[in-house]
Structure formats: structure tokens, C-alpha cells
Amino acid sequence: MRAAKRMSLIPPSSTLKVLGLAKELERGGKKIVHMEVGEPDFDTPAHIKEAAKQALDRGLTKYTPSAGLPELREAIAEHLTRQGIEATAKNVIVTPGAKHAIFCALAAALDPGDEVLIPSPCWTYEAMVKIVGGKPVFIQVSEESGFKLEAEKLEEAITPRSRLLLLNYPNNPTGAVMSAAELKPLLDAAVDHDLLILSDDIYNVLVYEGEQGNPLKFPGMAERTISVNGFSKAYAMTGWRLGYAVAPADFIVEMAKIQEASTTCTASFVQAAAITALRGPQDFVAQMRAEYRRRRDEIVRGLNEIDGIKCLKPQGAFYVFPSIEELGMTSLQFCESLLKTKGVAAVPGSGFGPGGEGHVRLSYATSMENIRLAIQLIREFVEESCK
Ligand SMILES: Cc1ncc(COP(=O)(O)O)c(C=O)c1O
């Protein structure tokens, strides 16, 4: 069947190629060490699950308002206020996953041909921007800068069609974190050129050193910022599909129109569980963070002990993005060959936009045992295939 012309602009994912191969090998009986999956290996805390069960028993099984249950919108606004961010329920929309919040935000913000500035390597924003008729403009950030966007590079990329700057720190795939002081010149440039900011803050509870700045904490920035967050990473709730965006109240009304026309609303009992997640005990988050930090230290140390691999120590999220440049193969060759010979699944850096090639992404949202096994297998692979 012929699809719309714009579908041919949506790039196929090289990530999926490797994942498809991993599944095929697994079906054939090969043991695979999964280092590709970007999802917490922890279970959702029991009290959150219990809240969903109770909501179902109470009969919370119908549609909710498109922007979300009023009580959840309030709980999210309170959660932000506790972090020093001024927000009311009217500034919040609840969505089925942070991904859908990003999609609604882009659809509500962009006119055809509007340019979206995306520091790269980056997560899968390109497809979303293109689907809603925008034009992604990648700004390649260097490993030397710790994969952080610098204001000069941003200024060089801005044109009269620039509409929105998309920030994602802590970053997927690099794990880079940007402090308030580092963000400041970028935000100043956004004001000078009248850009909106879309800040994907999904990993903001996973910061191991330093601090992650938040555009909403800067005076005057709330009027041009859409901050996206969710429950997938912070509360190990990927399968629940639960996210939210914070933006000026009039923009939330526009985003709600997109949600109304697409998914209607987020699942009602899932929203009830989210209230418990935000208002209940938070010690789980700190425990999870401490465990991720231990794993990060282990994987960075292990990778840097392998000749030909260089790995920066990321300050946040749960990914490492080591350089394999010295090994003389493309990231896709490396990942395919590593998977076939040693059964370790990793994602080629080429799948994360300009600047990704020469790197691979490994997730440490997996057990310490798997991490140690993966390092040992990668070492064997490098020694055997790169002699
Ligand atoms: C940077 C980034 N943003 C958003 C998401 C999506 O989160 P959700 O599961 O809430 O849709 C992910 C998931 O991997 C991510 O890595």
C-alpha cells in the first residue's frame, strides 16, 4: 500500500536491525547479554502497583479529562514546587509516556518547515519532528566538550526558521549532564532568538555527580519552556506508559487538543497509581540511583581497561557511550559482529544522529553480573577480532 510521501523521510532505525538480529539469535537458542535495552531492570515498587489495583477495584475504569485527572495534575505541580519550580495544575498535561508528551509538544509548536535545533548524538527525536512537518537541524557536539552543547555552536546553527531548541540532559545516549551555569548561555541565546525550549528531563533523577540545571528555574524562562518528564525511569514504570509535560497554561490547552484527537487520555487507573508514586515514599528512587552509580563505575572501569576502547564517565542517565574509533570498524560492524560472535547486544552509535558514529551505546540498567559478563565478552571480542 502506498504511504504518505512524508513517510519516506522517516529514517529506518539501525538500532532495530541489531535488536532484530538479537531476537533471532535468541530464538535459535543463543544466550544473549542484553546491554541495549534502555529500561530499568527494577520492578515497579509494590505500593504503586497496589494503588493501581485499588483504583481498578474502585471502578476508576473510564475516560478521564484529556489533560489528565485533576488530582494528578495537582500532584505533579506540587512535585515541581518541591523542586523550586513554580507551577499549578493548569501548567501540566498527563500523557501516555514522555514520548507522547514530546510528540504533542512538537505537534502543537511547529508550523510546516519550522526548524528544531537538536544537539547530536541524540535520541529518536528526528522521526517525531519530521512526522509533524518540522525540520530537524542537528548540532554535532564533541566528545571533548563532554557531549555538552556549547553556545557558539548553537548560535552558528540558528536561522530565521529556527523555532525550538530541544535539550535532553542527562542525555541519552551519552549520559552528559549540564549544570545551571552551563545551560545559562544556551537559554540566553534562546531568548535572543525567540526560541522555544523543549527540555526532555526524563533522566533528571539519575544524576550521580554535579547538578543538572533546569530551564524552568531561570527567571522568565517558563513562558518559553516545555519541560517533559515521566514515570518510566524514575519509578521503573516503562510499561505503564505514563508521562507529563509542564508548559504555559495556554500551550497546555493546545497540547490537550492533540491528545484529545489521538489517544483521548492516559489510562485512568495508571494515573491514580501516579498520584501514589509522587506522594508516597521516595526512598526507592535514591536506592535505585545508588545502584546505577555502582554499575556505572564498574562498566566505565571495565571498558577503559580494554585496549582500543575509551569511555568517558557519564554523570547521569544509565548509558555509557564509549568510543570504538581506534578499532577500525563502523559502529554497526562492531555491534553486529559482537552480537554474532559473543552474544552481547549493544546499539551502534550511528543510530543516534551525527556524531554518534565511532561509538556504541551500552545500557547499565541491567544486573552487575550481566555487566561483568558483557565486559569480559567485549574484551575477548576486541582481542580476537582487532589483532
Ligand atoms: C531521552 C528519552 N526521552 C523519553 C523517553 C521515553 O520515555 P517514556 O517511556 O515515558 O515514553 C526515553 C526512553 O527511552 C528517552 O530515552
Layout: helices, strands, pairs:
Layout: H1 14-27, E1 33-34, H2 46-57, H3 70-82, E2 92-95, H4 98-109, E3 115-120, H5 125-131, E4 135-140, H6 151-157, E5 162-167, H7 180-192, E6 196-200, E7 225-230, E8 243-246, H8 249-262, H9 268-279, H10 283-304, E9 319-320, H11 331-342, E10 344-345, E11 347-348, E12 360-363, H12 368-385
Parallel strand pairs: 1-10, 3-4, 3-5, 5-6, 6-7
Antiparallel strand pairs: 2-8, 7-8, 9-12, 11-12
Helix pairs in contact: 1-11, 2-9, 3-9, 4-8, 10-12
The protein binds pyridoxal-5'-phosphate (PLP).
Pyridoxal-5'-phosphate binds next to helix 4.
Cofactor: pyridoxal 5'-phosphate
InterPro entries: Aminotransferase_I/II_large, AspAT/PAT-like, NHTrfase_class1_PyrdxlP-BS, PyrdxlP-dep_Trfase, PyrdxlP-dep_Trfase_major, PyrdxlP-dep_Trfase_small
Protein name: Aminotransferase
Structure description:
Helix 1 runs parallel beside helix 11 (331-342), helix 2 (46-57) crosses helix 9 (268-279) and helix 3 packs parallel to helix 9. 48% of the residues are buried. With 387 residues, the protein is an alpha/beta fold. It folds into two domains: 5-31 and 284-385, Alpha-Beta Complex (Aspartate Aminotransferase, domain 1), CATH 3.90.1150.10; 60-279, Type I PLP-dependent aspartate aminotransferase-like (Major domain) (Aspartate Aminotransferase, domain 2, 3-Layer(aba) Sandwich). The protein has twelve helices and twelve strands. The strands form three sheets. A seven-stranded mixed β-sheet has the order 2-8-7-6-5-3-4, with helices on both faces. The longest helix has 22 residues, at 283-304. Residues 38, 97-99, 123, 168, 172, 200, 202, 230, 232, 238, 243 line the site of pyridoxal-5'-phosphate (PLP).
